[in-house]
TrEMBL record:
Disulfide bonds join 79-91, 84-98. GO terms for biological process: carbohydrate metabolic process. Keywords: Carbohydrate metabolism, Chitin-binding, Cobalt, Disulfide bond, Hydrolase, Metal-binding, Signal, Virulence. InterPro entries: Chitin-bd_1, Endochitinase-like_sf, Glyco_hydro/deAcase_b/a-brl, NODB_dom. Coiled coil: none annotated. GO terms for molecular function: chitin binding; hydrolase activity, acting on carbon-nitrogen (but not peptide) bonds; metal ion binding. This is Chitin deacetylase. CDD domains: CE4_ClCDA_like, ChtBD1. Residues 69-112 form the Chitin-binding type-1 domain. It holds the Pfam family Polysacc_deac_1.
Length: 360
């Protein structure tokens, strides 16, 4: 089952809008490049043969990789291995060239290709502990009068202030963390603030969940989704000593094969039943629309304690500095509690993580 609805598509396109403009709609064509993997083999001269109408490639074109400033991408060359192929198809090494998810994978290097330090988590046992299902999409909470607010794509520059706001209301939330998106660097690079923010979330009683290493579309390939999950696990292990059993797929895209892999990797796949649409309303003149969505849900005449699982993004200023406080007040007014996803599903905290007890 592919769970891509209209809302999900909006989410996808708006998440991308946060980044540099992209060429990812052309990504499928990567597969149709000569030799399947886009590789032009050195020393091989392509010629027009009986079954081909290919253009005649000279030897020079066949052996060289694109250099700084040259074009790259589907139908063009790969960059030299130390360069990134930007979303617009130029080789370079600035953050804008290399930032994932939109840096062109396979046409040079990308932030996505970085690997966290320490042992891989792949050999850690993944028993299906607890009563919450694994490998199937969960859209709603269970415990009456709970409201699980979730924040995707961070941490980022506003996250510290968001944690202060949550503290002020003694509210708990769930953070679907992405390891290296949007040029922010690795979450486990402690010269940056992300690692200590994640520790603070953890020790404040919020829930840490995975939103993959670099926010790629997990339906692309099995290899990619395993790497995307395992690398984020290693990075989170480097920060809190373990990794989550809860995840949300980027762009809300996880087809049957992907769900099977999430099941095998021991993950609860979390969707939502309220989309705050904060990503399209990140403007003082528009954020009221997001507030209205939440207000409508919490004042429904047939409310009766119906639990909610809401999605937002801590990378947007209006979400952090305006929407969140509004939501927390409304949640209180409605007699609800702002809790983590684990709590709203009645899953004890011990089941939210798998600890890595191996020595480094
Ligand atoms: C917060 O949202 C309201 C609309 O609900 C808007 O009028 C106000 O300007 C926003 N405040 C800030 C500081 O952006
Ligand atoms: Zn996301």
């Amino acid at each position: 089952m592919i769970f891509v609805g209209l809302l999900f598509l909006f989410h996808a396109s708006m998440s991308l809008q946060y980044h540099v403009p992209i060429a990812s709609q052309h990504r499928d064509s990567v597969l149709s490049v000569r030799d399947g993997d886009g590789e032009l083999h050195p020393n091989r001269i392509a010629t027009v043969d009986d079954q081909s109408t290919d253009i005649h490639l000279g030897q020079h074109d066949a052996v060289s990789k694109a250099r700084l400033g040259e074009r790259c991408g589907p139908g063009k060359r790969k960059c030299e291995s130390y360069l990134c192929c930007s979303p617009a198809g130029y080789c370079g090494m600035t953050a804008a060239h290399c930032m994932s998810p939109d840096c062109q994978l396979g046409y040079g290097t990308c932030d996505a290709d970085k690997v966290p330090e320490g042992k891989s988590t792949k050999r850690i046992q993944r028993p299906h502990i607890g009563g919450v299902p694994y490998g199937e999409v969960i859209v709603t909470c269970k415990v009456p009068y709970t409201f699980a607010m979730t924040y995707d794509d961070g941490p980022n520059e506003f996250t510290r202030d968001l944690l202060d706001i949550l503290d002020k209301y003694q509210a708990k939330a769930t953070f679907f963390i992405t390891g290296i998106n949007s040029g922010k660097g690795q979450i486990d690079d402690f010269t940056r603030p992300w690692g200590s923010l994640i520790q603070r979330m953890h020790y404040s009683g919020h829930q840490i969940a995975s939103h993959t290493w670099s926010h790629q579309d997990l339906t692309a390939s099995r290899k990619l989704r395993k790497q995307q999950i395992l690398k984020n696990e290693a990075a989170l292990r480097n920060i809190i000593g373990g990794f989550p059993t809860y995840m949300r797929p980027p762009y809300s895209k996880c087809d049957e094969d992907c769900l099977r892999d999430m099941d095998q990797l021991g993950y609860h796949v979390i969707s939502f039943n309220i989309d705050t649409a904060d990503y399209i309303n990140d403007d003082p003149d528009k954020i009221q629309l997001s507030k209205d969505i939440v207000d409508k849900a919490l004042t429904s005449p047939s409310l009766d304690g119906r639990p909610y699982l809401a999605i937002g993004h801590d990378i947007h200023a209006q979400t952090v500095y305006n929407l969140t406080e509004h939501i927390l007040q409304r949640v209180n007014d409605a007699g609800y509690r702002a809790v983590t996803v684990g709590e709203c599903l009645e899953d004890p905290r011990d089941n939210w993580y798998r600890w890595d007890y191996r020595s480094a």
